[in-house]
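Morning, I've got a small favour to ask if you have a moment. It would help a lot if you went through both lines with me. I owe you a coffee for this, so here goes:
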Amino acid sequence: MSENLTISLRSIQHYMYCPRRYALLELNRDWNENAFVVKANLLHEHVHDGSHSYSDSRKIVRSDVTVYRDGADYDLQGVLDCVEFVRSKDGVPIPGLEGTFLVRIIEYKPKAPKGEPFHETDAIQVYAQKLCADAVWGTDCECFLYYADIRRRVRLPFDTDAAKYAALLGHLLDGMQKILASGTIPERVKGQKCSGCSIADLCFPKEKSYSVRREIMLQKEGK
């Protein structure tokens, strides 16, 4: 990809859910909320409000941390829910902190999947976060998902499956870049399930059925 446009980390899952949704959000700036969106937003607001930031003798924890990565391969930027800087002689120096640290990313999600340890879509988002964090701090971050409904942290297998996630992310970013560069909103994907989408009504506005009574009333009102 050449002359990349910056992609927001948070937008990757929108594209994975539906390229048309991603385009409407990024190009049209359309937005609407439903119960799923509100629940996720409330969780992230709680994580980012500063109450998760603290320090002790073992680690320094910070929430709402901005990261980025720019270059020929990736152009990404966004915010991490939570970062743990764990004191270790095998770690790296972190600007503004004394000592050396191992770095852990923790991404918060409201609901865990059934029958598997994590959602693949969640993992790909965190892999993109890892690329940014590794570039910023010159390290190899450990990455975790925290699912609020089960109150459990799940470690992601980027140490063994990095090539898989790099390929998946590269494919996604290529598609996202093409939409941004063209400025074109793609058609709905055949078979796409829209019932849980917060902008379904904006994507496909419902037309009112023809009504003779309504037409007469509009004429009387001079509309």
